[in-house]
Amino acid sequence: MTTAVTYQPVGATRPADPHWQEHPSGFRWFAKSVAIGHGDEFWENVSEDLLRWGVKRRSGFRVSPCSSAADRVAEGAEYRISVGLGPVSLHEPVRVVEVVDLPDRRGFAYGTLPGHPVSGEEAFIVHRGPNGTVHLTLRSLTRPAPAGVWRPAFPVLLLAQRFYRRRYLQVLVD
After folding, report:
1. What is the model's pTM?
2. Tell me: the pLDDT tens digits for 89-118?
3. What SS3 class is residue 81?
4. How far apart are CA 18 and CA 52, in angstroms?
5. Strand, helix or coil for residue 129
6. How many CB atoms are closer than 10 A to CB 142?
7. Which residues, 6+ apart, have CB-to-CB distance to 150 below 8 Å?
8. What is the pLDDT of residue 111?
């Protein structure tokens, strides 16, 4: 039996949609795009890296596939993301809820599973414009975890989230 994600609606960050305009109530939402490079070779390298968790790994996270999940993101696959924050190690069980693999848009969204410090969804998308400029877009919906030891620490987790978003927006730059 598959464990349910800790939030609804699943797929709300809509990584395939270039214009994210609907944000479910009850979540803090975030969206930002930055230019990270240019050209076909850069596009091929960065988009494949993204689909292999490059943005998370280059930001200091460890990503471990659960059971038969592959290293490359796959819809429905579950992963354990870990990071050390000083003396504390944070573990984030997640499920990939959507994968986009189009000629000029690639990315994925994952949703939180029980035990994750927060509840919600995060999407990482790279997209290429007609002039060859490649952008990275981050989208997230976040609220406190429904239960657990991390729930009272939600304000501190939001600070950590801001720190890592800045890293995400920098680590793939050409």
Report:
1. 0.94
2. 889 999 999 999 999 999 999 999 999 999
3. strand
4. 21
5. coil
6. 20
7. 117, 118, 157
8. 98
- The dihedral through the CA atoms of 84, 113, 137, 57 has a sign that is positive
Structure tokens, 124: 């990482």
Identify which of 107, 116, 36 has the alpha carbon closest to the alpha carbon of residue 82. 116
**119-173 residue pLDDT tens:** 999 999 999 999 999 999 999 999 999 988 888 889 989 998 999 999 999 999 9
Least confident of 29-33, 35-39, 136-140, 170-174: 170-174
CA-to-CA distance for 117 and 9, rounded, in angstroms?
A: 19
Edge-to-edge, what's the strand order for the sheet holding 105-112? Answer: 28-38, 133-144, 118-128, 105-112, 88-102, 78-85, 62-65
How close are the terminal C-alpha atoms of the chain, in Å? 42
Q: Which DSSP helix (H) or strand (E) runs through 41? A: helix 40-50
Q: Which domains does the chain have, with CATH numbers?
A: 28-169 (3.30.530.20)
Residue 21 token pair: 């305009």
